[in-house]
Amino acid sequence: MNELVFFINNVVIAGCVAGSIYAIGAVGVTLIFSIMRFAHFAHGDMMTFGAFMVLLLTTLFPSAGAAIGIPTPLIMLPLAMALTALLAVGIDRAFYKPLRAHGVKPIVMVIASLGVTLMLQGLIRLFAGTGGESLYVDDRKEIFRLALPIEGVRVPVVITEPQLYLFALTLISVVALHLFLSRSRLGKAMRAMSDNPSLAQASGINTNTIVAVTWVIAGGLAAIAGTLLSLDVTFKPDLSFFLLLPIFAAAIVGGVGHPYGAIAGGFVVGFAETLAVFNWGILLRPFRDSLPDWLAQAGNLAFVGTEYKIVVPFFILVAILVWRPTGIFKGKVI
Amino acid sequence: MSTTRTDTVAAPRRFPLREVVIFAALLVAVLGVYAMMGAAYSTRMLVEAACYAILALGLTIQWGYAGQFNAGVMGFVALGGFCAMFFSVPVNDAFWDSDLPGQLGTVLAYIVGAVLVVFGASRLDRIGVPKKLRTAITVVLAVVLYMVVISAFRGVADQIESQAGFIGGLGLPAWVGWIIGGALAGGVGYFIGHICLGLRSDYLAIATIGIAEIIKAFLKNSDWLTRGTATVSPLPWPVPGPAEVGFTLARALYLSVTAVMIAAIFFLLHRAYHAPWGRMIRAIRDNEISSAAMGKDINKRRLEIFVLGCILMGIGGAVLASFNSLFDPQGYLPLNHTFLVLVMVILGGPGNNLGTIFGAVAVYIIWLMSEPLALFLMELAVHFGESTFGWDAPASLDSRALQARVFVIGLLITLVLRFAPKGLLPEKTKHVE
Predict the structure, then answer these.
(1) Total of domains in chain B
(2) B53 shares its domain with B147
(3) Half-sphere exposure of residue B330, counting CA atoms within 13 Å on the CB side?
(4) Touching check for A315 and chain B: CB below 8 Å?
(5) Which of A102, A114, A303 lies nearest to residue B71, judging by beta carbons?
(6) Does a cis peptide bond (omega within 30 degrees of 0) precede residue A325?
(7) Nearest CB to A307 within list B221, B403, B417
(8) Contact indicator for A88, A222 with CB cutoff of 8 Å
(9) What SS3 class is residue A234?
(10) Which of A29, A40, A118, A121 to mutate to test the interface with B (most CBs of B within 10 A)?
């Protein structure tokens, strides 16, 4: 049973954490894609920016959270979301809107977003340095060890406080996004524009507002994902480059332009990553005596080493592009 | 009705004023660097700029000729560098004298066998096995065989690392590595292009970013093959090295080799651009649907040009690694080896080879000179801050000043796309009235 608990710790919980973060990121990417029809490469850096804002605010007011009883970074999160949304709208006005007005090809927008990536990265590194920093400035990261009430289980299920917040916030943002897209007027207009931009414009939808709203949502979600990831591990300015591929893989797996698909895709990619780096030999240990010798002796039965983790989202991406380029939920755009 | 067509191919030749002015300015800049930094340093800069020019030519045919955006130049550069290292570094006797080559060969044979078995299983439906069953058999076989092969492989790799360090090179002349580096990069490019080129153009960018990171991760962690972070040096040169003829002369000799290569590539690309093949490529870029209607095989042409560009990147990367005389997988950075090349191409003029070469040299000079400049500006700011606000500067100032260059490269990309989308030397297109 110890092995099973180990499995839960290393695969189920870790997969949920990675999956939630990829899912929130992929929703933003896929929304931008469905409204503006280009792959927004600066999304990872918008996440980093959101986390950096939280870090900045937390360093300024380290004891704000103690008054209420939740960690300071989470109190600062709404503010950071607003700042990141503002940044996203600003970037759009400054860099993407003129290009859109010129009617350039989508791939030129992609290159422009890479330029924005570099600018954001440069700015963040200029102010934050290049090392990692913990978002827990004044608070302490709570770690819960849940001992299972089963005979012979010594290893507890380990879950940390930020992970619980992560799951809760993921759930809240997914439900909120669902309500927004299906109930509110703006959300419906967004869906209309994603289906057919010119028809949406002809029926009186203000496309400029929709674009701005999309950026606000994408920026806010990016700030949530970036902050929660940095809470779980540490804040690092070069976070974004490792996030880019899993997030895009998640968006494409779910079907580009399909928010619910992106959530599913995020969890698919997250779990695939943790399953691939998990050492399956551990699960065989209890059956050591009844297994043939060559299998019992096998040391490391992980599919890929942790250093090759990035291969997993790439492999998923390649597989989905080969067999089902529209994604598992039939995205609209290929 | 008489139809007199103006000869659009032989367009009236005008004096190339813009080109002459721009290249004269570049010459002045190069001479300025020579006067300031000395001959040895400046020649090194020129050789590196020439290597970057080869990379930029590779990107310009992908982006400028065919409108494909490759965001993973770094990966192909690293592959080229690896080949230059692997073929030219002296033979490692500690490895070849032991029984390790035999074991490695056995494992490689296993890999080939496993691939064949899985491929065979994927064809089981040809002999009447239901498709679902075939897929299940293939997946299970692939997973099991992968596990078996990879464990055997890990064992051999660990033994090589502990007994011989790494497998060493082949001790062949440097140019063999350059050619094979190009071929290997082209092969990887074929794999990526085959998957992505029929789909939206964004997918190619995502996939190339991914493959570049994977290649880097592989080279960095395969200590048995590349010594990983321990780096391999020195790499032999194809011309007499600095130890024999002195720094300046040796670098000048190397520069002449790269210059000949660039001239050859430039000439061949020029011919290809004006040949029917080049016209077809540009027609596909400008209007895909109508060229498909004319019966052109769009995906095949796209694949051709993508692979050609990757080959050039591989060669450029190999030449660069040989010149640096060092193979350091960690030294391959997206900023230095992808985005810098991108800036060279879009600033110089995508689709215009002359413009690309100009962009490569000019941007590289600016890039090198910006390092001391950034430090100087940062120190100035700190001095100002200390004297006026009593602000005490963070310690890691040097590394932070260099981050400013990341910002500048990004700003340059967005500004050029917005205000000069065709670059300083635009591609010359002839219009028929």
Answers:
(1) 2
(2) no
(3) 8
(4) no
(5) A114
(6) no
(7) B221
(8) yes
(9) coil
(10) A118
Is there a contact between B199 and B65 (Cβ–Cβ < 8 Å)?
Answer: no
Cβ contact (<8 Å) for A117 and B146?
A: no
Say yes or no for a CB contact (<8 Å) between A99 and B201.
Answer: no
B251 and B325 in one domain?
yes
Q: Is there a single domain that holds both residue B67 and residue B126?
A: no
Classify strands A143-146 and A157-160 as parallel, antiparallel or unpaired: antiparallel
State the smallest CA–CA distance between residue B252 and chain A in angstroms: 34
Please give the residue of chain A at the shortest CA–CA distance from B201.
A107
CATH of the domain at B281: 1.10.3470
Query: Which residue range(s) make up the domain with B153?
Result: 93-165
Per residue in A214-244, pLDDT (tens digit) is: 999 999 999 999 998 888 888 888 778 788 8
d(CA B380, CA A278): 51
Place of tokens 């499995």: A7
How many other C-beta atoms can be found within 10 angstroms of the C-beta atom of residue A75? Answer: 17
Q: Is residue B251 part of a domain?
A: yes
Distance CA B411, CA B398 (A): 21
Interchain contact, A115 vs B417, CB within 8 Å: yes
The answer to whether the beta carbons of residues A334 and A326 sit under 8 Å apart is yes
Tell if the CB–CB gap between A122 and B406 is shorter than 8 Å: yes
* Nearest CA distance, B193 vs chain A (angstrom): 11
Nearest-angstrom CA–CA distance, B207 and B23 = 36
User: Which chain B positions have a beta carbon within 8 Å of A252's beta carbon?
Assistant: 203, 206
B403 contacts A118? CB cut-off 8 A: no
Q: Give the distance from residue B406's alpha carbon to the nearest chain A alpha carbon, in angstroms.
A: 5
What pTM did the predictor assign?
0.89
- H/E segment holding residue A66: helix A64-68
Tell me the C-alpha to C-alpha distance, in Å, between residue B417 and each of B65, B263, B348, B388.
17, 28, 12, 39
Phi and psi at A63, nearest 5°, equal -105, 15
- ipTM computed for the complex: 0.88
Give the one of B67, B201, B221 whose C-beta lies nearest to A308's C-beta.
Answer: B221
Is B115 domain-assigned? Answer: yes
- Provide the residue-wise pLDDT of chain B in tens; the chain has 433 residues: 445 554 444 455 667 888 899 899 999 999 998 988 888 889 999 999 999 999 999 999 999 888 889 999 999 999 999 999 999 988 888 888 888 888 888 999 999 999 999 999 888 888 888 888 888 889 899 988 888 888 888 888 888 888 887 887 888 898 999 999 999 999 999 999 998 888 878 889 989 988 998 999 999 988 888 888 888 888 888 888 888 888 889 999 999 999 999 999 999 999 998 899 988 998 888 888 899 999 989 889 999 999 999 999 999 999 999 999 989 998 898 888 899 999 999 998 888 899 999 999 999 998 888 877 777 877 887 788 777 766 665 556 666 777 778 888 888 888 988 888 888 888 877 655 5
